[in-house]
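Thread: "does anyone have the structure for this chain?"

Original post by V.I.:
We have the sequence but no experimental structure in hand. Need at least a predicted one for the grant figures.
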Amino acid sequence: MDIVRVLLSILLPPLGVFLQVGLGPQFWLNILLTLLGYIPGIVHAIWIIAKR
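Reply from O.Q.:
Generated one for you, tokens below.
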């Protein structure tokens, strides 16, 4: 399942974070990072998935 989350995180970073942690503060942080720049959103999403 982690491979699916990583692939979704590359395409749409907040979706990967949502599937991992739900609607917590990490999700909202990822939305902010994705809006500020697509690459920071991807890095954050993959970091959240790899951390858990």
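V.I.: this helps a lot. The chain has one domain: 2-51.
O.Q.: and DSSP finds four helices and no strands in the chain.
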